[in-house]
Amino acid sequence: MADFVGAVDQGTTSSRFMIFDHGGNEVARHQLEHEQILPSPGWVEHDPTEIWERTRSVITTALNKANLSAADLAAVGITNQRETAVVWNRRTGRPYYNAIVWQDTRTDRIASALERDGKGDVIRRKAGLPPATYFSGGKIQWILENVDGVREAAEAGEAVFGNTDSWLLWNLTGGTDGGVHVTDPTNASRTMLMDLETLDWDDELLSLFNIPRQMLPQIRPSSDPQGYGLTRAAGPFGGEIILAADLGDQQAATVGQVCFEPGQAKNTYGTGNFLLLNTGNELVRSTNGLLTTVCYQFGDAKPVYALEGSIAVTGSAVQWLRDQLGIISGASESESLARQVEDNGGVYFVPAFSGLFAPYWRSDARGAIVGLSRFNTNAHLARATLESICYQTRDVVEAMQQDSGVVLDVLRVDGGITANELCMQMQSDILGVPVSKPVVAETTALGAAYGAGLAVGFWKSTEELKRNWNEDKRWQSEWNDEQREHGYAGWKKAIERTLNWVDID
User: Which of 253, 256, 303, 419 is packed most tightly, with the most Cβ within 10 A?
Assistant: First the structure.
């Protein structure tokens, strides 16, 4: 058998390809950013063709860096930004419209109408999700209703939908020349269109959005020994490799963090924050603003479910300090600037740029900086930005404890912001539990590689994967209970100031 496994990681701001060895160690990677298209306030789009070209490029470059070929890879997995909707023509391969990104809020009227008409409870019961702009269903409806010719093409079976996983799998397996149109339950569970119990598209949910069933990809296991198809020799791999795993990015990170036991949780710090708690084969329905989602399905085994707290803006709040305010020149500067002050100076920053996600689900909210006085400096704002990442995580942890009864004894963390030592110390202080980072921090790509490797026998079991996990750093809380509760009370007051800002019909 070949010595390595590959993973395509198609994210919100970039696409990358990573290669791992049997020990789960990184062998090579290449990464390229793509354009963030912002045509109107609250609208966020990507060019699907650019994403495909960037993906082709990172695969070829990473293989060349490592002096490897298709024959050296036992299998390839895909992980992706979830909920970002692409609709394309299966005959020409051309997208009808830009990909509508998960952060986009243009579908707020669709979501509000569903809630107002009493359909929200149907979506919660079957799909485990609240009607919200976050998910794919409303985005597909918007494209069908607003882009000329798409409705007719969909009815004729020519216009098809997929999150970015499906778009890349279709292109990698031949595109217009026999490309496979598939997804997995982790991605399908983010559309508001799949029944969590049957793991199939649901006709009642489809009718709520007026979406033709023939637009949708086939749902296959997240790690599939049969594979979804082979890469084409003419493609970026230069040869045939089995595509054997497909996981939404946050579920992939859960696999990469080897959270295979009920009660284990991980938090990924990326553009947003995503905290998943493994609930095993039990489907736990949230009453506290969390999402019930599929964690993974390996082969013919029963699906494993999770509770998820999705936070829209965390790492992108630091980007905002850099790109819009210009008070830092790079993300790492946020730490050195924040260290110039001992506390937030009474300042709280709620980065509700896309409304508030879990556990509030308020699309009428907008960002707010509160508690300012002339005493405050840009260092206080930098510190408040890092604290906002941690306080939003606490909101989710509190909701998870109420839903599941699980009290965390440690939080496993990954993603870019874990390089910020101050932020991770704040996270432990604000939660009051230890925070643990693994040696391999790129757990999203690693999880996709694990899924692909398990499917083809490169790794024999999840027990083998657990042995690959090693801790790199642990942070212990330095705050007392009084400090923790005082800080959190200020955060809750700040949240109140963001609500009812946007009028939604």
Answer: 256
